[in-house]
Design goal:
The complex is a heterodimer of chains A (197) and B (386). Chain A has 197 residues and is an alpha+beta fold. Chain A is built from 4 helices and 12 strands. A 9-stranded mixed beta sheet of chain B has the order 3-2-4-7-1-8-11-10-9. Classes of the chains: A alpha+beta (197), B alpha/beta (386). Strand 7 of chain A pairs antiparallel with strand 5 of chain B. The complex binds zinc ion.
Chain lengths: 197, 386
């Protein structure tokens, strides 16, 4: 790493012009500053030049997740083209995604209910980057969708489709676009996306 | 509420984009500076708390233990705490417990984060916060949840991007005066509004940078505090709260978990009217709308009122209620856990009148710092005063 040590710091400082010296913020009672303000940033260029040790390692981690009792039934419902929620008789909420217990009342839920596959957009985004910040031209449109038949405010996250990004708005009515029954596998992706009604 | 606990020393590294130093080295620099600032030696420290975000960032299992030598934990009672982005302020609450309970006379609280280790982008490390069965098959992007929350906040209160972008302008300009800042800059409203759209309504300059850095503070009981400093800054209250992990079932326009944490901290601190009894605030601002969200959750103003306070200049460094005079995460940088502790350290320097060019115009005697994180569900709050 000797090469790294020799790197000039001007480049880093140029990013934040006018940065004053490090002493002033740290005036302690005893004024015993021995090392000053430390921390050395590296630029993109320095990384490209290979002066930084980079190891690439692919984690070979595989998980066998249990869907659980409640989500298991939710997924089975999706396979049949149904969206299932649960009801708590105490707080009267109809909840989705379904769960075995009401976290407010901390008791078992009382009943399963079938919700409609329509709802309204609670909120949305037009996303022009991938998770690793690569650019995409056509935005992905994630949304929280409040389902008809569930308690007001109860939503699930999903994607919108067949819609002009300029026309998406909060409060927009949407309907699920399902995969063909034969293609469904009991997954949230059995709903391809939601489109405006 | 147990023994009185003071902050007696603080230190930090520069917040930088990619630190040449290792996490241990960053932790060491911050800790050494904190010890030096109050003339203490490590052997006067009874216990160590380290806050750091997910192991995934570093690719090291139990990274708390891995970082511990740099955090001065050799041969000492040591504990790592982690509640996502809320960690930096939570770590102080953790340390407070140790000293308030009387178990320790002194406690070192260190927060370290290197977000640069994860390639190609730290965002990847966050993707596992989404539910594995009902959400991850949709191939989510971390930015989504913030964009969804911001849009809900804007729509609920009829806000425009301009009303929110002023926060980024204020904080990035404040950071110009912070010697440790990564991203201070003369930024105009136009710059923010014309920056690249990442996930509407989130644009590039609405977001804090990915950073590496460390911060440390030293806590002491009253006896030790009086001995090592003339200007102890007392921890008057701590609070924390969690909202449900069913985030799509929440009211995304208001951080209820922050309010709950704030009420706990205010009660302990005897604060009954936060709007008048809090003089300076460092709410968590990884996105510009979050500062506004959090001011409301901290009860510093009514719901939907924070944008107007920003427009009116109330939250400027020379305003009636300075908010993020440090420059915040938007300006100083966002090494997750360290960023939260930076806010507590800033209040320490501000209340002692040692913030140099950043010193607020008002005489400030009590401040609140807050952090937030994980699946947008954690609120952590610390009230400090002199
Ligand atoms: Zn209930």
């Amino acid at each position: 790493m000797a090469q790294v040590k020799k790197l000039k710091r001007e480049k880093h400082q140029a990013v934040t012009p006018g940065r004053p010296g490090g002493q002033e913020i740290m005036k302690g009672d005893k004024q015993r500053l021995e090392c000053g303000l430390q921390g050395t940033g590296l630029s993109d260029e320095e990384l490209r030049q290979g002066t930084v040790l980079t190891t690439r390692w692919k984690a070979d981690a595989k998980y066998g997740w249990d869907a659980g009792v409640a989500i298991g039934r939710y997924l089975a419902g999706l396979k049949e083209g149904k969206i299932l929620g649960v009801r708590c008789y105490k707080c009267h909420r109809v909840m989705v995604p379904p769960r075995l217990f009401c976290e407010w009342c901390y008791r078992n839920i009382d009943e399963w209910v079938e919700l409609k596959d329509t709802g309204i957009v609670n909120t949305f985004s037009l996303c022009y980057v991938t998770w690793d910040v690569k650019r995409i031209k056509e935005p992905q449109i994630p949304a929280v969708i409040e389902l008809d038949g569930a308690t007001k405010g109860m939503g699930i996250m999903h994607l919108l489709g067949e819609v002009d990004p300029k026309k998406v708005h909060i409060g927009m009515k949407v309907k699920a676009v399902w995969k063909e029954p034969a293609q469904r596998e009991g997954a949230i992706t059995d709903i391809r996306y939601w489109k405006p009604v | 509420m147990g023994n009185r606990v003071a902050i007696v020393g603080a230190g930090m590294t520069k917040f930088v984009r990619r630190a040449q130093e290792t996490g241990q080295e960053l932790a060491f620099y911050a800790t050494k500076m904190a010890l030096d600032s109050c003339g203490m030696k490590l052997d006067q420290i009874d216990g160590v708390v380290l806050g750091s975000a997910p192991d995934t960032f570093d690719g090291v299992h139990m990274k708390g233990e891995y970082l511990s030598p740099g955090a001065g934990a050799w041969g000492k009672p040591y504990m790592r705490c982690y509640v996502g982005g809320g960690t930096g302020v939570f770590a102080v609450a953790h340390g407070w417990y140790h000293v308030a309970s009387g178990v320790f006379d002194t406690c070192l609280v260190v927060c370290e984060e290197k977000m640069s280790s994860y390639q190609p982008h730290a965002q990847g490390a966050f993707l596992t916060i989404f539910d594995h069965t009902t959400e991850r098959p949709l191939k989510p992007n971390l930015l989504w949840i913030f964009a969804l929350e911001m849009n809900r906040y804007m729509t609920t209160y009829g806000l425009r991007k301009e009303d929110i972008a002023l926060v980024a302008v204020k904080n990035k300009n404040n950071a110009l005066d912070h010697p440790a800042a990564q991203l201070g800059g003369k930024v105009t409203l136009d710059d923010i509004l014309s920056s690249e759209v990442l996930a509407w309504p989130v644009q590039r300059l609405d977001v804090s940078p990915v950073s590496d850095g460390a911060v440390a503070v030293i806590l002491a009981n009253e006896t030790v505090a009086r001995r090592v400093t003339d200007k102890p800054v007392w921890i008057e209250g701590v609070g924390w709260s969690l909202d449900t992990a069913y985030w799509t079932n929440r009211d995304l326009c208001y951080p209820r978990y922050v309010e709950e944490a704030a009420r706990m901290a205010y009660k302990m601190a005897g604060v009954t009217d936060p709007r008048h009894q809090i003089h300076i605030a460092e709410p968590y601002d990884p996105f510009d709308y979050k500062e506004l969200h959090h001011m409301e959750g901290l009860l510093l103003c009514g719901r939907g009122e924070a944008p107007q306070l920003t427009v009116d200049g109330v939250t400027q460094r020379d305003g009636e209620l300075p908010v993020c005079p440090s420059g915040g995460l938007l300006g100083v940088g966002n090494p997750i856990a360290a960023a939260g502790l930076m806010k507590v350290a800033e209040l320490f320097w501000q209340l002692r009148g040692e913030a140099g060019k950043r010193q607020v115009a008002r005489k400030v005697k009590r401040g609140v710092a807050q952090a937030w994180g994980d699946l947008m569900q954690v609120g952590t709050v610390v009230v400090v005063g002199i």
